[in-house]
């Protein structure tokens, strides 16, 4: 069958929206008609060659859609089911999957940048017959996609596709960092440094966990306004005009700094600021992805010993999709998790390069490509 998809052929070049030939699903695969796909900064890292991805690659990994066909061995879903994608699938057999960290799956996680489905071949081909890789085994910036059944989670039919697509990556990554990974406690203080799409969900994770002082820091006034209006920030800091570390000390008890700092931008400077803004016995959690070959962060390691601080990394917000996605959607229904408010603009597939330009320009919290 035919599909149209956004394909990366050259780094730092616009994506090419083109018609591709799409194979039928194999035994353990499903054909999904995509309905919505969130625009995530991780795709931008691929476009800018900041991650070691192979090309050509169909991008997109924050997808939601409807199953149209299933392979002969598929047991998790059936035609007509509504699904959300999982950008880091899981085997349910390795040590990591069996000990509660399936987002670190030993059998799947290593191949996300290669973009070749199990079996070692391609499901998408261009007009020249060249195989097209699928970003994170997905490539959901496509009208249709053939995916492993391990890459989809069934969701309730009443959930709207555009907002729930955000949970597939940015929502789970941001919300889960304070809620699951750092385990923020009621009454604690939190700094979120970087308040775009992922940061807006980190603010919400802190709010739902019970934090009472929630500081949003960014250089973009629009994002700071939204942080306070919708996502739970009690205070805001414009990093272009104010000193983040000093303001955090002024806003916290006895000038100690925050109990938890969440760094979403992932530059050496902002990581250093987050660590310095963290109080004694506090925790700094890095959420953002830095260029893979970058080394060095301005910090004094003695701080972690003398001040008993902890430094975490957080992948996927330590979310377990099979269990946590249903909880997140219940929070969405109850109004605790704001998904609609995180969508600044919707796009068509043909506007996909505009969508990524808006990420670079900082005009969106989250954009969504809709296929309906």
TrEMBL record:
UniProt keyword Methyltransferase present: no
Stored SMART domains: PKS_ER (SM00829)
GO MF annotation terms: S-(hydroxymethyl)glutathione dehydrogenase [NAD(P)+] activity; zinc ion binding
UniProt keyword terms in alphabetical order: Metal-binding, NAD, Oxidoreductase, Zinc
CDD domains reported for this sequence: Zn_ADH_class_III
Pfam families in UniProt: ADH_N, ADH_zinc_N
SUPFAM superfamilies: GroES-like, NAD(P)-binding Rossmann-fold domains
Gene3D superfamilies reported in the protein's UniProt record: Medium-chain alcohol dehydrogenases, catalytic domain, NAD(P)-binding Rossmann-like Domain
Domain Enoyl reductase (ER): start-end pairs: 10-369
GO biological process, one term: formaldehyde catabolic process
Domain of life: Bacteria
Entry cofactors: Zn(2+)
An example Gene Ontology CC term for this record: cytosol
Stated family: Belongs to the zinc-containing alcohol dehydrogenase family.
The protein, known as: S-(Hydroxymethyl)glutathione dehydrogenase / alcohol dehydrogenase
Organism of derivation: Jatrophihabitans endophyticus
